[in-house]
């Protein structure tokens, strides 16, 4: 009985995350659906989904893990279709359903491959054997299949459309999905990290596909106006970044990213109704748009901060991670150097102190999480350099979109990004051609009749 479940320090942390976010979303839903006749139905589906996620985390048997994984998707399907008469919700649910079934088949194939190679269904024992193995075609196949499952679960391009359209579902569903369920792809790879570390092919597959997806999705999010849609594109980008970190062997950074993203996205979606008030408050406060020279100063200050930290503590071992933290610190510093007045110097000093505290917190958390993971993978310098180049490209193109929108190639890039790179349209047409949705067609037909009668 005890072999069916396993609770490690890592899993205990993840369970704490699920508990905090789950309780917050359930409490929000209880208030938000007050007076709704179907509040009980929604809360039951919500609790079933959260319970299935908990079962995924504590599972220690391949079959039980797979069953819980499928259960999460089926329970989420009910939540997405809570308002079944919304065509976009129907379309999102249809695409999500098909992708989920495909990924579950891939996951089953990966588990069967691992079982046939190591002759055990106990996940803990399996990982111990994998860590002592010397690779091979079976292990490479299992790693590639797990990487594909994670790419689908984390809504990487071009399989991202359902995540964008799921904003038609109630706000608590979006919060649960973006703050928790979409992270399961990363959690899967963290649990099976020795398998991924044993295959350079699977790691490169993740680095290239998730890296390019993260870059494009991050740029597309800058072109969006709708708060929820912008957050959805941001989630796709952040999940790609997390997968890249795992592929590079930066497990502690990916775990820290997972926690930060979960808390941020749950807050952002549940607080999305106040965005207009925040926007108006910023306008009334006289918000100033930073110029290129302000960014240059912020980049210089953050680079100096990183150099001091590296000199004293040698905190950075990856070029990609260094570039990522550099840009993050620069984004934190740029508001303090944008407005020059009598309070500029104290404001810059306070921001630098805050940035130093965050860098110290990052270093400490990284050290402890590395010990918690207990898995060490060698860093591929070529993959690391490729990811760093992607980060530079993302930053440079973001600056170009913001400051030189009238340049011809920037205009064309904006149009392409504003259309979501046209990827979802192609994916939707292909999906509906291969497997049409009867309920969606009936709903569209009924709405067409209603609109025709209204015109008459």
Automatic annotation (TrEMBL):
Q: Name one Pfam family in it.
A: Proton_antipo_M
Keyword Plastid (UniProt): no
Keyword Transmembrane helix in annotation: yes
According to the entry, every stretch annotated as the NADH:quinone oxidoreductase/Mrp antiporter transmembrane domain falls at: 59-276
Q: What does this protein do?
A: Part of an energy-coupled inorganic carbon pump.
Belongs to which family? Belongs to the inorganic carbon transporter (TC 9.A.2) DabB family.
Record protein name field: Probable inorganic carbon transporter subunit DabB
